[in-house]
Amino acid sequence: MKKVNILIVDDSPFQIALLKDALTENGFNVVGEAQSLEEVIEEVKRVKPDLVTMDMTIPGTDGFECTREIHKIDKNIKVIVVSAMMDDELIKKAKKTNISGYIQKPVDPEELTLLINRVMGDEELYLELENLYPKVFKESIIDLFNKLTKTVPEVIEESDTDIEIHSEGIAIVMGIIGKYSGRMIFDMSFSTAENLVKVLLRRDPKNNEELLNVVAEMANMFGGNACSMINKRNKIFGLRVAPPTTFHGESINISKAEIENNYSANVETQFGNLSINVGFKRGESEWISII
């Protein structure tokens, strides 16, 4: 990622000094500072920043008006609010004003750095994820079976084609959120699920609900472990999995998702076959940073 040029907007010289030190120490280039609307307009035209840190309380105006004036000059300049005030109304208004992120004072330098990197993430970062995640999810499914069942499955029929999915009987669907959003599907037949759950529980499942809960938790571990592995490679991604949703029945079709790239594979195990499907898109990144 290229060096990010930052303009600091705040009416407090103390806060400007704190932010300047934190940003400089973390590798950013502070190119200017402003304490009023007039100074904001003048400095944006002069230094042409990539990003502006914006206080909400500016004499004679506020951070929203300053942001609108910045975007009149250059709509591509990113603005992150750095303010002591944070509530639902401010956050809602900030999004409508095309503000790219929001962090509350006192600012943790590491958290601010992470938020800026996420906001400024570009094509290079997305390509990194695109090249990384198929290998990681493949590794995660193999590792999961190895740890839970002491067996090693074989991943076959890998594909990058996004198609409608016809479930074998049980489909666990999970959203993925973070810098980029995505979707994961963990699918198997009831027969495979029964064979697998018997080994995991060391007994027959008490009922259908218990069987489905075990399969859902397997999917949760699979997706969660894979996302954690990706975050370890680059914490800017900040990926997390949403709670799983379970679909089951004799005929289930899951439509194609609105994703830009896709990885799917069949997995041969000693308990029967299953399939995995994962995809990501360039969406709205994680927006608010809260300590």
TrEMBL record:
Domain Response regulatory: start-end pairs: 5-120
Positions of post-translational 4-aspartylphosphate modification: 55
Pfam families: CheX, Response_reg
Keywords: Chemotaxis, Phosphoprotein
SUPFAM superfamilies: CheC-like, CheY-like
Function: May play the central regulatory role in sporulation. It may be an element of the effector pathway responsible for the activation of sporulation genes in response to nutritional stress. Spo0A may act in concert with spo0H (a sigma factor) to control the expression of some genes that are critical to the sporulation process.
Protein name in UniProt: Stage 0 sporulation protein A homolog
Organism: Clostridium weizhouense
